[in-house]
Amino acid sequence: GPKGVAEGAPKGLIVADASTSRPEDSQRLGAELARRGIRFLDACVSGTSAMAWNKDLIVIAGGTVEDFEAARPLFAGFARAAYRMGAVGSGAMAKLVINLILFGNRLALAEGLVLGMKAGMEGESLLEVLQDAACSSKTMVDKGPKMLKGEFSPEGHVRTSLKDARLALEQGARLGVPMHVGKLWAELQQQAYEQGMAELDSSAFIEVLRGKAGLPKRT
User: What's the pTM?
Assistant: First the structure.
């Protein structure tokens, strides 16, 4: 728009968009900027805010090899690794795939913890075993303690998780891919949102499952 970045940017500027968005939007934006002589990367970031403080993020980018290599020093300033996934739009698609699998990990963890809670198991011991068992995942380290203690200071919000789930479902509908996990995750995040948890960490959805299991709400 008037007085926007695109209007005043010098030729050859590289814009790296780190948001989680639709691949088609990235493609359209990249094409529009290219007509103005501006280069573009959909440089999505995977990781929580806590991981960002420890420089434990990764970048998954879409764009030309030349632009990706030019932006590497930038990515190295805040991420431990950066991957080029292909043309513009492929970074955004890879981020949605990552999120979808992450949704499944968090959903399974919450469901398992609620089952253990309802059975009266000692939570710390259960989580310790889960983290050392064949089912172990990074999610158990990052979100297990929050789910166990009911401590949902945000490292990512319910409202953002709901938005990301809807983006993934859009791609499934567009490409004709079944999205069973995505649909269930979106439903639970929607319920958490409607129950006043929009600004809490996305792991707060465990309270929805606790409620369904007849356990007291902790938020």
Answer: 0.91
